[in-house]
Amino acid sequence: MNLYSNKQRWKIALLIIALATIGASLFVSNNMVSKIANRERKKAEQWADAIQKRVELVQFTNATFDQLREKERQKIEMVVRAQKALLAPSSLGVNQDVDFALEIINENKEIPILLLDDQGHIMQHKNVVIDTVKIAKENLFIRKEDKKDLYLFIEDSLMQLAKNWKSAGRTFDIEVFEGFVMTYVFDDSRTLKNLERNRDSLLNAFNRDLINDSQLVPVLLLNKNKDSIVGTNFSAQELKNKSLQNYIAAFGAQNPPIKIDLGSGNVHWLFFDDSAEVKQLFWFPYIQFSMLALIVIIGYLMFSTYRKAEQNQVWAGMAKETAHQLGTPLSSLMAWVQHLEASGADEMITNEMQKDLDRLEKITDRFSKIGSGAKLVEQDLVVTIGNNLEYLSARLSDKIEITYSIKEEQAIMVKHNASLIEWVVENICKNAVDAMSGKGKLKISMHCAADWVHIDIQDSGKGIPQNQFKAIFQPGFSTKKRGWGLGLTLVKRIIEEYHKGKVYVLASDADKGTTFRISLPL
After folding, report:
1. Distance set, CA 341 to CA 71, 330, 349, 353 (Å)
2. 508/487 Cα distance (integer angstroms)
3. Which helix (H) or strand (E) holds 209?
């Protein structure tokens, strides 16, 4: 009793320790994952801040370039006025004004300009770079006689530039005299264009480094209405596989979006997800403990199988040894009975002694079968139980009322070993008699259900606590002071291992009785 009570306590203690260890490990791992996730969020916030800084830089540089363009426009206005003075000399008062106008025009060494007549033809150009070698190669002008055609292509190139600059609004009109208007068109200076190219290159590199950062968490930068992607580090295929709204819902559930206010009502939203590493770390403890649990279960099953095999060997060895030890005195007693019969002893005495010898012989046979394996024979189970109860009735107290009922009232053919089944019923009945303290009712009933035949043995004893329903079948468990705790263990072994059936406590009430059920397959 103490052995199994302590065993149960050890199981509970080990379970609590295991749960505490798992809980602590999960707490530590989840805490680590939370810290990493917070670090990634900080990185996403830094990314958003970098975008904000970039926008501020763009706004500042755009304002700077607008100022530079305005200054260049003012410079061109001066050149236009000087050109107008040269084209309309009647407006000049003195000769030094001509020199001053020429000085202003010649000072322009950066801004490309084109002067068009009233028909739109090129009259003059300055600071316009035309790559004649490239034009010649593209149009296959390789002979000297093709020089005229080359000039035509250069003229077309200049006309295209003039058209582009006009469409950009970089134009001034000069009225030389009434009815004759010439047009001045210009472009940004080479210095300003180089500055813009360098700016765009730096900004594009900055943006590309942010977007292509492999260590950055998955991000989506959306517009104010959250219906268009401004920037992301997802591939085109990834965006195609899943809709934008699904990404927004998934990312929003994982992390709250970051608002990026660019000023003047221009707002962007940054949605981001946890990195693949964080997600893997989140599941890692569960996978780890699942693997450990699997290893423990496999190990437990293996050791349990080995232990069970060893127990089987012990049971078989003990049963064989018991049968062997009983064989010698049994043979001697049989000889003494025969001697008494030959000596003319009282026949009643010799008959009763013979019955007990038969009983001992049956017990020896039972142990022999447990040790070497039992042969199952299809026979009437009703007869087997009935014969056993008839034997028990004659040897139990007269204060025990035994009733035996079969629901079907017909033969029930089941494959079983009659000797071992009788032993099972006998063990349970004797335990029932002990529980009733030698006085009470013992009811044995039998009925079929589906593919099983059920044998219920019900007593009117003191009952069994529910927490002992399984423990009573364990080796060594006993509520008696002198009990070995092997009777019900043998019952379980005979029913489950030899007959592939089931035996368990069907019901039990304190001071009302217990019902055991034996189920055998039909």
Report:
1. 146, 17, 9, 11
2. 19
3. helix 190-211
Ranked by mean pLDDT, which of 180-184, 281-285, 411-415, 470-474 comes out on top? 411-415
Q: Please, which pLDDT band fits residue 94 given cuts at 50, 70 and 90?
A: very low
Q: What is the pTM of this model?
A: 0.45
**CATH number corresponding to 374-521:** 3.30.565.10
| Rounded CA separation 147/149 (Å) | 5
Pure H helices in 88-122: 95-107
The H or E element spanning position 66 is helix 2-87
Strand, coil or helix: 171: strand
Closest CA to 318 of 477, 493, 498: 493
H, E, C per residue of 313-363? HHHHHHHHHHHHHHHHHHHHHHHHHHHHHHCCCCHHHHHHHHHHHHHHHHH
**pLDDT tens digit sequence for 102-118:** 776 777 778 888 888 87
Residues 218 and 44 sit within 8 Å (Cβ to Cβ): no
What gap in Å lies between CA 429 and CA 432, rounded to an integer?
Answer: 5
Tokens of 358: 């038969």
Long-range contacts of 350-356 (CB under 8 A, 24+ apart): none
Is the pLDDT confidence value at 382 over 50? yes
Q: 354: which 2 tokens?
A: 């013979």
* Amino acid in the structure at residue 131: D
Tracing tokens 């006009």 back to the chain, one arrives at 166
